[in-house]
Amino acid sequence: MAGRVLVVGSGGREHALCRALARSGWSVVAVPGNPGMAADGEAVALDVADHAAITRLARERRVDLAVVGPEAPLVAGLADALRTAGVPTLGPSREAARLEGSKAFAKEIMVACGVPTGRSVTVTDVGEGMAAVAAFGLPVAVKADGLAAGKGVVVAASADEARAALEDSLVAGAFGDAGRVVVVEEGLAGREVSLLALSDGERVVRFPAARDYKPIGEGNTGPNTGGMGSVSPVPDVPDALADRLLEQVHRPVVAEMARRGTPFTGVLYAGIMLTDRGPQVLEFNVRFGDPETQCLLPRVDEDLGALLLAAATGRLEDRPIRVSEEACVAVVMASAGYPGPPRTGDEITGIDEAEAGGAQVLHAGTAEDDGRLVTAGGRVLAVVARGPGVEGARTAAYAAAARVRFAGAQMRRDIGAGL
Asked: At what angle do helices 304-312 and 12-23 cross, to 10 degrees?
């Protein structure tokens, strides 16, 4: 089936959703959207924090499904507002979204249902935090409890770094209310993997494993970003291991949330570290990951809209999501200055050339300026390609990315390499 879908958000993840839904025959309305999404449907410039306006639009357009992309509106209760208005919605309630909105709550849930995770302590003052650092040893992760736009986590290699991170959050108020409580967690070493699953509140089905690349520089060097690229499949996480992780992580969490009377409907993203002592969950997100979505959705080999609607309405089939055997690589192109303050207003050219060979160019930080497409954020575009195996996909993605041009463009050259 195909119908009309409302996609909330304006980044690369949401453009990937719009593109995949349009490919499945769905009519797309994006709020607020971006220039790329406007080419795949209709973009309506509403504030994602204006729940009443978004709900009104969903009812006026008689959408069959709403998909909420970013975490902030989910934590603020947008999915509740849409469902109250009778709109089938993919996204957890405000209460269930606490799995991402509060790291302390996520840890509580993991402990309650036996999900493997690192030792941690929740603290509200620097002294408590430093006691935890002493108990766990170094390195140690210092995490603001609430949403901090991806900037609330410091992996400290020294006691001085740990103290500075605690003081930034608890004393200086660097993250506002989100940092008034801090989770101090033992450092974990290993290979990180992202495993996303859909739940209708009871049943759980998974996407293939993906891996994203956070640091700005090749070889995972330099400061962290929102993600400089992603790849799927991940050879060291074959389907059999992904199935075991689903049983160890996602199913127990969904069952625990249902037991508490706050069923989880939507995408449960687990960031997992594969350590010497087995898998350990680092964090949960309650929505599609960015940039993992950009490499996962092009592999989906069924009607994405029908799948998401089934999750939203309690009719999910308990089976893995059908995907292409081909691999997919997404390479992010970022602005000059990123991950610091990005330079904006640089003209972007070459997208048609890049897509002529079969690649997709998904917009994130772009804008229209007097008929020109220009940079308007840190992560500007993701160039995405499928191919026979990871090496074939990355060759195609980088060939397409070479055709996209804007002044000061940055991209890593090792996305998907060495897997």
From this structure: 110
Please give the average per-residue pLDDT across 191-215, as a whole number. 97
186 located within any domain: no
| Global pTM value | 0.96
Among residues 5, 54, 10, 14, the alpha carbon closest in space to that of 34 is found at 10
Q: What is the dihedral of CA 398, 399, 403, 406, to 10 degrees?
A: 10
- 340 dihedral zone (left: phi>0; alpha: psi -120 to 50; beta): beta
pLDDT digits (tens, 9 = 90+) for 269-279: 999 999 999 99
Domain with 58, as residue range(s), is: 4-92
Retrieve residue 90's tokens.
């993919």
Q: Is residue 138 part of a domain?
A: yes
Give the domain CATH number at 13: 3.40.50.20
Run of H or E including 400: helix 389-401
**Among all chains, which residue has been given the structure tokens 């409890």?**
145
Q: Is residue 102 a part of any domain in this protein?
A: no
Give me the mean pLDDT over the 188-195 stretch. Answer: 96
pLDDT tier for residue 149 given thresholds of 50, 70 and 90: confident
**Cβ of 243: how many Cβ atoms within 10 Å?**
12
User: Does residue 287 share a domain with residue 201?
Assistant: yes
Pair 301, 389 in one domain: no
SS3 assignment, position 147: coil
Same domain, 302 and 235: yes
160 Cβ neighbours under 8 A, 6+ residues apart: none
Q: Are residues 175 and 241 in the same domain?
A: no
Residue reference for tokens 């991170």: 165
pLDDT for residue 1 is more than 70: no
Q: How many domains does one find in the chain?
A: 4
